[in-house]
What we know:
single chain; alpha+beta; Beta-galactosidase, Chain A, domain 5; Glycosyltransferase; 18 helices; 33% helix; globular
Amino acid sequence: MIRRYRICLLLWSATLFAQRPPAVPLVTNDPYFSIWSMADQLTAEPTRHWTGTPQSLTSFIRIDGKTYRLMGAERNDTVPALPQLNLAITPTQTVYKFAGAGVEVSLTFTSPLLPHDLNVLSWPLTYLTWSAQSGDGKDHAVQLYLDASTELAVNTPDQPVNWSRLQTNGLRVLRMGSREQPMLQKSGDNLRIDWGYFYLAALPFDDVRQVANDRAIPREDFLNGGAVIAEDTFAEHNPRVRYNAVRNPVLAASFDLGNVGSQPVSRYVMLAYDDLYSLEYFNRRVRPYWRRTGWEASDLLHAAAVQHDQVMQDCKQFDQELMADLTRIGGKEYAQLCALAYRQSIAAHKLAVDADGTLLFFSKENFSNGSINTVDVFYPSAPLFLLMNTKLLRGSVEPILQYASMSRWPWPYAPHDLGTYPLANGQTYGGGEQSERNQMPVEESGNMLLLIAGIAKAEGNAELANKYWPLLTKWAEYLRDKGLDPENQLCTDDFAGHLARNANLSLKAIEGLAGYAMLAEMMGRKSESEKYRAIALDYARKWMELAADGDHYMLAFGKPGTWSQKYNLVWDRILGLNVFPPEVARKEIAYYKTKQNVYGLPLDNRAPYTKLDWLVWTATLADNPVDFQALIAPAYKWMNETPTRVPLTDWYMTTDGKQRGFQARSVVGGLFIKMLADQAMWEKWRK
């Protein structure tokens, strides 16, 4: 039986932002179903897809016959905004609170990205909840309104849209999708989905009304009478066909809460997107994970309604415990950075399943080049998934291992990607399978060995490594030959141009070799373990000589007077590799504290920009909380003051706080690396 949900949403003071985040996550499920507010006030402008393209969700509240806006804005808007009091962001929820006309109201977006329950995490669904109560001790007549634009179901607003009304499992459902349904026919970066269907579903409250019509009609109905009139628009030439016969149709719903007093009254809707098929994986169309047992959209909506109360309770408990632990490990400012990063990182992935049941967890390289499952993108995001659920990380790592094991991959090092999102049919970056142009040999091989070592440490066994051991050995041999003093190779940080003899890239190779030795030891391959650990130790000693530059270590060997963040060194402690003495990290941290700008530590001496993910990895090298906070505080200041209003960018200027490039990328999952540095904390969350 579907239960009605009535609860007063509490704001947890530890998650309140001192000023404001650059953008606020609202609906965050996957790279296509991702809607944000990019302003201080939820009523300041239209809600947008992470790319910045408008995808409008609009909400009104009517109090004693007068209407106010709670969400959204349009040019020449005549409906006044109800004053917004504050904003709270936790890992799975965003809560806005408003007050005016004698009423207090909260608007809560809950994306149940619970890592211990992959079925729920894979739901392409966000709950939107209103909770209203009297703020002046008097009863007030209250009605609520929401509409969703057809922009949510198309790539460009000129694409025609079909819609339908459903009655399924007791729910009241409106659905819309593009008329053409060009499934998986586009790939690239700055794109929105134009196949599958968006759903607006409500419980069968007596006071709910729903309609599909020109946006002006249900809004006018609500302004005049407090409810939408359930008369849907049809194509003029054929009243049986329901499609975009008007210029700006919406799916709309209204609720009449009656007289609201001191006890809160709540209603919620479910916003969902069924993409039918999510990805193409080596020329096979694959289903989203939640569809693996044959579910349809009606099953998804029914399950989400039935489990609503429990899911909301689980999200609240998860958020409170995670925020408490983040604060304990890194401080309040660190915890708030992670709260904002959590949904963004997961929602930059799609969780799908191959025909044989293999889990696929593929990232989209948002606003960098649109690649799918890029190794040097899931490498920085990996700490979140090593901490929470290694099955997710394996869903990124193992498809790369399978691809590199195929005869079509000709190179003795790891691939860069699996294609261009959402088509994972083989590497498209650089020379792909055809040439070694713009490959990342040391970068990606080191990344893969370290991540497989991380999975083995988290799971307590080297099963994954054993399955692909000849391939890992090939990569270790490559790092042995090329890793200590890298040639002029492309690496993930070559924003200022390629760089030979890169000291931080060399660090990655050395740690990767040590990780390979650790895996060999776990598998009982004693001679291989001893051999490669000896190589790693020898290379570490040579690195310290090659990179030494007085009170710090160089950006590149043979370039005195240069410096860079040595973030790859963080694995030495996290994995217990211990190939470098602790003095290396201490010397670097002391030097970094002299090089900070107002918004953080630059990536290296060549430019004043930084990378947010690497900055937190570098801060994690600190062996005391004072030094960690010294490096984190400027990043927190940047988060609250950056003039660029986009979902967290990981590449920004430390001088003026402006975005340099990238946004909404999964790499911000790397902020959770501080939790891995505390072995007891890692063990707690792993279990």
